[in-house]
Design a protein that fits this description.
12 helices; mainly alpha
């Protein structure tokens, strides 16, 4: 498997698995204990690795939300919980989720070795959200560590893809409308968005550029690491996205 094939084959699974704890019942319950509803815990927990910043900074890192939504969620949430504390709580939810889903799975140590080799080899310039989560300490146990690595890898692709979208000249609002047409209003955008063929082509170009930009990091994996990485990704997505 070439590095590009590894990037492309692993991307959908990492995207799905890395987001599966966001609105899990245990995550929502912990947010409620802290005084945060699910959406506010998502904003403050995911963005809290950036620190106590202005909403515009969170908007730049998240990319696809209208600034009005970011301001409302971020400002109201951080009145209740300090952002860095919320980030630690959110990542602790991810760790607990990993333990609940992945305990007893074979090959997680090998997956973690490959994933961390990949993550540690990435140039973080321009990738603020990825850099923030990658800087957080990992748990020692393999199941929690594996899931946390998946979350970090999800932010890696997300941050790189956001750069690629901007590089094509496509607006993030249009990119979001093309990729998630059912979530336009919930992200703060007008429900009726006209998309041209050129804009769809721009998103395809951004997807291709994303794969190209990630290629060098994946190329650093040995054949054994690449096999362990893909086996781990497949096992993790199967166990974290199946009801």
């Amino acid at each position: 498997m070439t590095p590009q094939e590894l990037v492309q084959e692993s991307a959908p699974a990492i995207g799905a698995a890395g987001a599966s704890f966001y609105f899990d019942s245990d995550t929502l319950a912990r947010g409620k204990e802290l005084g945060l509803d699910g959406f506010r815990f998502y904003f403050l927990g995911r963005g809290g690795v950036l620190g106590d910043v202005e909403p515009a900074v969170v908007e730049s890192a998240f990319g696809y939300f209208n600034i009005g939504v970011v301001e409302a969620m971020w400002n109201s949430a951080k009145e209740i919980v300090e952002p860095r504390e919320a980030a630690r709580e959110y990542l602790d939810c991810a760790s607990r989720y990993g333990r609940s889903k992945l305990s007893g799975v074979d090959g997680l140590d090998e997956f973690n070795d490959a994933a961390e080799s990949l993550i540690n080899g990435v140039e973080t310039a321009g990738l603020a959200l990825f850099a923030g989560i990658a800087a957080e300490p990992l748990p020692d146990d393999s199941p929690a560590r594996a899931y946390r690595n998946i979350c970090t890898l999800r932010e890696l692709r997300g941050s790189v893809h956001l750069l690629a979208v901007v590089a094509t000249g496509l607006s993030v609002a249009k990119a979001h409308a093309i990729r998630r047409p059912g979530d336009v209003e919930s992200f703060g955008w007008a429900p009726s968005v006209e998309i041209s063929d050129d804009e769809r082509a721009s998103l395809r170009a951004a997807d291709k550029l994303t794969d190209q930009l990630l290629g060098p990091a994946f190329a650093k994996l040995s054949d054994d690491q690449a096999n362990a990485f893909m086996s781990g990704v497949n096992a993790i997505v199967d166990l974290t996205t199946t009801p």
